[in-house]
Amino acid sequence: MKGDDIVSNRIRASKPAAYEFEITLCDVHPTVWRRFCVPANITFQRLHDVIQVVMGWENYHLYEFRFGKTRISTPDDEFEVDATHFDARRKRLPSLGFDRDDVLGYLYDFGDNWMHVLRVIRPIYDLGDRPAYACLDGARSCPPEDVGGPHGYADFLKIISQPNHPEYEHMRLWSGGTFSPMRFDKEAVNQELRRRFME
Fold this sequence. Notes:
By secondary structure, the protein is of the alpha+beta class. 28% of the residues lie in helices and 25% in strands. The chain has 2 domains: 3-140 and 184-198, MM3350-like (Structural Genomics Hypothetical 15.5 Kd Protein In mrcA-pckA Intergenic Region, Chain A, Roll); 142-183, no CATH class. An 8-stranded mixed beta sheet has the order 5-4-3-6-7-1-2-8. Strand 3 and strand 4 (70-73) form a beta hairpin.
């Protein structure tokens, strides 16, 4: 076996330093997605916090991760921790043994029902000088909170694209007056990741 192969095998036999994920918001057109990385040993609560930043959600609502029969969230009065339901504040990413192309569901806001597909792009064994928390790529703006799920968002986009629509001014002001569905600022996301998780 060549020296480079031995080194590579030793690295892969060790635990990953980070995971690279891609997250896609379901039932929204055109597609809203992000690619990002996080330290491998974080809790699912921290992963949720990172997703909120990279996607652009405002962390107003409950959430749940789904991986096969496993459910991971922050317990409330109706949530019981058992063999398939886990507390996101204590459950860590390595406990599920992620590998390349594994897929999880991430549900945010049980009212608007925003389902995301979260795919493991790869485990990262050597970060080098790269930050452990980073948004690598993405496209388009996250929908506004409480817009009414995918159907409500489609109606919202239709209204704000027609200045003569009777609800245009109301919706424009409700969304802050500057909503652009095509906007994605990777540097702004990374600044917020650094502020929240690395300082």
